[in-house]
Design goal:
This protein is of the alpha+beta class. Helices cover 25% and strands 14% of the residues. It is built from 6 helices and 5 strands; from the N terminus they run ααααββαβββα.
Length: 276
């Protein structure tokens, strides 16, 4: 059919409104047979564009946040003498009750992370472990204990890392993986300065199966750590409870090999043959 006859048929079927409809580019890109060639979407439109993950306090680990605040308070007290101690600040890094300042700090990590698109070299840091949480992971920072004490005594706070399989007082090389509200989840690469409390884990799968968190600590020290967890929980609930004595933890007759539940994980993909 000649080209002008197609134009006439379109003009006759469409009412004359005084407005001309723009011709769709898909109607123009046709071959001689009238079939539309296969088109690929631009790379910027393939899937949703990457957006930075919005950090929310509700998504953070509450035990980590509590451990960080307790560490800041204890560090501040250790840096002050009894004569010049006007009172522990209600907040470190921002004014008490200033939620905007807290959000601005907690949502703006000053370091890169692997899941934020940074390279391996940019994500590697040497840190100092300052405390362990009740879940067996540690709170670390790039500042030494002396630098941390100086910073906290001025009412400030560093950026913290959560590191597994480390002990208080150790030095470690880590990989920052994912940012959270006020801290960054990390992987342990190497323990560069070991604690005298560290032992060789009795299980060959420790650190890989994720079933245990404290096998790198002697059993007697594990019991003392658990006693301190209860002690800190009372102090966090009410300062008056912090004065209550907490008795030692009774030993188990079977410290290892008592688990009766197993949750295996498999990396199986869709359409994987059964034999594989």
């Amino acid at each position: 059919m000649p080209e002008h006859s197609a134009d006439i048929s379109m003009s006759q079927s469409a009412p004359d409104t005084g407005l001309k409809r723009a011709v769709s580019p898909s109607n123009l890109n046709t071959d001689s047979a009238g079939a539309k060639p296969e088109q690929k979407r631009p790379k910027t439109q393939q899937g949703r564009p990457h957006r930075p993950r919005r950090l929310r306090k509700a998504d953070a680990d509450e035990t980590v946040l509590d451990a960080i605040e307790l560490l800041l308070r204890e560090t501040w007290l250790n840096g002050r003498s009894a004569t010049d101690c006007p009172g522990i600040p209600a907040a470190f890094g921002w004014s008490s009750g200033d939620q905007d300042a807290e959000a601005a700090y907690s949502r703006s990590p000053p370091i890169p992370a692997k899941l934020a698109g940074a390279s391996e070299a940019e994500c590697t840091f040497d840190v100092y472990v300052h405390e362990m949480t009740e879940r067996g992971v540690s709170i670390a920072a790039r500042e030494t204990p002396e630098q941390l004490r100086e910073l906290v005594s001025q009412g400030q706070r560093p950026w913290f890392f959560v590191v597994p399989f480390t002990l208080k007082g150790e030095q470690a090389r880590i990989r920052s993986v994912r940012h959270e509200w006020g801290y960054t989840q990390s992987d342990l690469l190497e323990v560069t300065g070991k604690s005298p409390l560290r032992i060789e884990a009795p299980c060959a799968y420790f650190g890989r199966c994720s079933g245990c968190q404290l096998q790198h600590v002697g059993y007697n020290h594990q019991l003392e750590f658990k006693r301190q967890v209860v002690e800190r929980a009372f102090a966090h609930a009410n300062p008056l409870f912090g004065k209550l004595p907490v008795l030692s933890v009774s030993q188990s007759p079977l410290p290892y090999g008592y688990r009766t539940k197993l949750t295996p994980h498999f990396d199986l993909r869709k359409n994987t043959p059964i034999d594989n």
